[in-house]
Amino acid sequence: MAWFKRKEKGIQTATEDKKDVPKGLWYKSPTGKIVDTEELAKNLWVSPEDDFHVRIGSAEYFEILFDNNEFKELDPKMTSKDPLKFEDTKKYGDRLKDAMEKTKLKDAVRTAVGKSKGKDLVVACMDFAFIGGSMGAVVGEKIARGIDHAIKNKIPFVMISKSGGARMMEAAYSLMQLAKTSAKLAQLADAKVPYISLCTDPTTGGTTASYAMLGDINIGEPGALIGFAGPRVVKDTTGKDLPEGFQTSEFLLEHGFLDFISHRKELKNKINLYIDLILNQEVR
């Protein structure tokens, strides 16, 4: 029916019902490339035309690293409290409830143990979707317990960082996690258990100032933003223009802050290769 006749008869169609393509079926990368989301998922969430690495969460990384996506999650029910009764535009307790309902996660990190290329591996992976991947007491505690599990069972530990930094709603409780996780990693090193750190987009703030940069091997994903403060803050503080590509994985690799950059398709093989080299084992 012509649009003017529909209008005369009072027939209205909601905007979402007018769409021929369901929401989320296509993805547009920052360079303007359009890709089918099913194809994107099969390509490990890397845009096939421009190689852009789309942000993904713990579920996707676990599927990439663990054989047959089989793993046991550690401390899956641990949730944050609100010790300071913090409130800004919204109560912190309400933010936590909203984040849990929206993401179906308990907090901004998940830890798991499983097989990767046939050998045991402990993986802690952050989820940016949960309050910007901010690091609070639960994040620090789950990482610490994951490290304890790795030490007890002599299993290599992998940390996948994706965070805006410390969780301001927990103030000093959040900042204490920098020292806590760093101390646990020192114990891991004393136990001679390998630690691989993967920095993804974005890895910033207290995360960068602690466990993200303490790996035996520090890896970055292509084009990831990695730094302590944001580029604007650094520029305002130093009063100088920043070099092109400042705080990207490529810039950090060139200046010695990363050991290498890994494409997501090569991630599983690369991590296992370097674990074998650290342990002086035959390369698989």
Automatic annotation (TrEMBL):
SUPFAM superfamilies: ClpP/crotonase. Pathway: Lipid metabolism; malonyl-CoA biosynthesis; malonyl-CoA from acetyl-CoA: step 1/1. It is an enzyme of class 2 (transferase). Gene3D superfamilies: 2-enoyl-CoA Hydratase, Chain A, domain 1. Acetyl-CoA carboxylase is a heterohexamer composed of biotin carboxyl carrier protein (AccB), biotin carboxylase (AccC) and two subunits each of ACCase subunit alpha (AccA) and ACCase subunit beta (AccD). PANTHER family: ACETYL-COENZYME A CARBOXYLASE CARBOXYL TRANSFERASE SUBUNIT BETA, CHLOROPLASTIC (PTHR42995:SF5). This is Acetyl-coenzyme A carboxylase carboxyl transferase subunit beta. It comes from Flavobacterium jejuense.
